[in-house]
Write a structure and sequence with these properties.
Elements (H helix, E strand, L loop, with lengths): L15 E6 L3 H16 L3 E3 L7 E6 L4 H17 L3 E5 L12 H5 L5 E2 L5 H11 L6 H5 L16 E5 L1 E2 L10 H5 L3 E2 L2 H13 L4 E5 L14 E4 L2 E4 L2 H14 L3 E4 L12 H5 L6 E3 L7 H7 L8 H11 L4 E8 L6 H14 L3 E6 L17 H24 L5 E9 L7 E4 L11 E3 L14 E10 L2 E6 L1
Helix pairs in contact: 1-4, 7-8, 12-13
The structure holds iron/sulfur cluster.
Length: 467
């Protein structure tokens, strides 16, 4: 059975809701908002489907495997509980008869909503599982401060700054599920960040579909934070987050940043240590013709030149990216352009998918579909080159002393543990395996920063000794 999420904070004799969160960090933040609201209204959470009065499944609909996992989970919840509300990306997918795909496959679900629909989900919950009356809770909604419930470990958290996307990449159906870009007011974002840092978060991961586009939809409107005007724009947001993080001795990491010229202004902030010198830039390809067929944002930019300039401005920068091999029409020459790019740009961390059709994406109709075997072969060739680059870059770390944020410790660190340096985002990059400290008196626990001397590499990971 899928794991049913169970955040802390409970009250007695209240209806119980089972909750399953599938999909990406953006879906996770939606789950956090719903769970926060449920808890604020006095609902309890159940660890099992059978023990719940009702189950909510937050789904993902991005690729076919995710659709299957979501539909299977809904089926499990229906079989074990019977009362199921579905939310998330898959909920926004239309079925053949004009209803939703979810209702077509599972007609007995109680309600279906799209993503970021906390209020709609809560309305459905109220209808099928009436709200418990608790005079104290009713008077004090949202008893968790601005930060709400977090499903990540206490020492790091995702901060969603916008929803949706204005682009129309031909392989992607996110805009049809999540809509156009809607930026959160900058004051709200900073308020949430402050609450997270005050709650003990040591690493804030900024997420969206397109972080560099923050504020485009509101024409970079001036908002207010701490009594001062601040523009709804990536540069000002990162400046403010960087200042706040420094005051709390914490990190800020940026994800989903497209290589627009405006990103160049962030580099000095990285070089000065206000924000981690780490950029997650989903490039998908390097060849201009493939990028055009993909309709990628910033496809007209000279990405290699830009990345090399970034490396000059901030030599310690680490770049993570994802790519697609075997996109429709990709020639051998275009593919080799991509391999050369990964070598020249020295991409530190790269992921690669063999192209696959996603139901509803316009790329499915593009001419020149590459045979599946060739797509897989190119993916393997890509990964071999990417690993060569990545391994060589990791080797250069040996002998350096890095600050490491501890994710796990054994015996207060006396027996070792694992952590991450600025070069590693949680769950997608490598880790630093921490050996027992050199000094017998040294201890460390989860959420602490420790300095570690890097003594070796292990696959995608580093091995370090706390000093
Ligand atoms: S930028 Fe492209 S891939 Fe990313 S969410 Fe928008 S349309 Fe999808």
């Amino acid at each position: 059975m899928s794991e049913v999420l169970s955040p802390t904070k409970i009250s007695t004799a209240a209806p119980k809701v089972g909750f399953v969160s599938l999909g990406c960090p953006k879906a996770l933040t939606d789950s956090e908002l719903i769970l926060t609201q449920l808890s604020a209204e006095g609902y309890e959470t159940s660890k099992t489907f059978a023990g719940a009065d009702l189950v909510i499944v937050n789904t993902c609909g991005f690729i076919d495997d995710a659709v299957k996992e979501s539909l299977d989970t809904i089926g499990e919840a229906l079989a074990e509980n019977g009362k199921v509300i579905v939310t998330g990306c898959l909920g926004a997918k239309a079925g053949k008869d004009g209803g939703t795909l979810v209702q077509e496959v599972h007609p007995s679900v109680l309600a279906v909503t799209g993503p970021h629909a906390t209020q709609e989900v809560m309305n459905a919950v109220h209808q099928h599982c009436p709200k418990p009356h608790d005079p104290f809770i009713d008077l004090v909604p949202g008893g968790f401060g601005e930060a709400g419930i977090k499903l990540t470990p206490r020492h790091y958290a995702y901060l969603k700054i916008s929803e949706g996307c204005n682009h129309r990449c031909t392989f992607c159906i996110i805009p049809s599920m999540r809509g156009d870009l809607v930026s959160r007011p900058v004051g709200d974002v900073l308020k949430e960040a402050k609450a997270l840092f005050e709650g003990g978060v040591k690493e804030l991961l900024v997420i969206s579909q397109d972080t560099s586009a923050y504020g485009v939809d509101v024409k970079y409107r001036t908002g207010f934070w701490d009594g001062k005007p601040v523009k709804t724009r990536m540069l000002e947001l990162v400046q403010a987050l960087g200042e706040m993080a420094q005051a709390h001795g914490a990190w800020v990491r940026l994800h989903y940043v497209y290589p627009y010229p405006s990103v160049d202004d962030i580099l000095p902030l990285m070089a000065q240590g206000h924000v981690l010198p780490y950029l997650d830039v989903p490039l998908q390809h390097s060849h201009p013709d493939v990028l055009k067929r993909m309709k990628r944002p910033a496809s007209g930019e000279k990405n290699l030149e830009r990345i090399l300039r970034w490396r000059e401005a901030c030599p310690q920068i680490v770049i993570r990216s994802t790519f697609i091999a075997g996109f429709p029409g990709e020639t051998e020459e275009e593919f080799e352009h991509l391999l050369d790019f990964v070598r020249a740009a020295q991409i530190d961390r790269a992921g690669c998918f063999a192209y696959s059709d996603v139901e509803g994406a316009t790329a499915n109709a593009l001419p020149g579909m590459v045979p599946m075997e060739l797509r897989e072969e190119r993916r393997a060739r890509f990964m071999a080159v990417a690993e060569e680059v990545s391994t060589a870059r990791l080797q250069k770390r040996v002998g350096q002393t890095l600050q490491v944020l501890v994710d796990q410790s054994i015996g207060l660190g006396k027996k070792g543990g694992t952590g991450r340096s600025y070069a590693d985002a949680p769950e997608i990059d490598g880790v630093v395996h921490l050996l027992p400290p050199e000094k017998i008196s040294k201890t460390y626990k989860v959420g602490d920063f420790v300095k570690a001397r890097i003594v070796g590499t292990q696959g995608h990971d580093l091995v370090g000794v706390p000093v």
